[in-house]
Amino acid sequence: MKPILAITILISSLSTLYAYHPEGMKVYKKECMICHGSPFRMAESRKQYDWEQMMFQSSRPILDLHKNEKEAIERLGSNWTDKKQENLFKFLIGNAKDSGAVPGCDGNYCGP
Amino acid sequence: MKNIFIIIAFLVSFLEASQIEWHKSYEDVIKTSTEDQKMIMLFITGEDCKFCAKLKDETFKDPDIIKEITNKYHCVEVTKDEDTYPKKFTAKGVPTIYFLTPKQEVIDYTLGYYDAEEFGYILSAAQRRYKKIKDTK
After folding, report:
1. B113 touching A, CB under 8 A?
2. What is the pLDDT of residues B37-62, one digit of tens each?
């Protein structure tokens, strides 16, 4: 096995321990943060049910949301994948307004 | 000739704030911000909070971040459940940062550690939200 692959597997299995979905957070940081800023504020802007509704309403809900935002479509459109979408929604749903997520000492912050 | 350079260096050091200036208390920051109408950055920390320390030691030492924060905000650091500040500014975890208008309305908030680039995005998004709030009034 190539070492890089082994490392990737190790990191991804470790990261599932975190409550706040680091993979989804990573997608948010890379794709959304430049325009929307604070990740937790975005997640808490809707309830779990609303994010789920959005997730199932089409195959590319994030692109639909931005159909009138040329710049966003240009940034997101070309490299958007199912995997990114899945991880992003895990983060958004997991940290939604009513998620009650009260994590302990997590990837980048500590709970109460 | 050498003296001139020293004087210039000295003057430049005054123009560019080299660190974030923290106000002593929440009360103090409200007072100052009411006077000059700058926004408020409320930094909620906790005891033994390593990500608060990292944020302060790394992100808040970045020259661009310092400049951006110093230009637009008055800052205050409070310890969760210990210092006096309005209870409505809850913190699910620490570090939590609230960006407030001079009237103490929430513009934006954020939770956790971010590097300078990410924090820059948070600051500019907060700025856009503030503009929106002002425009809709």
Report:
1. yes
2. 999 999 999 988 999 999 999 999 99
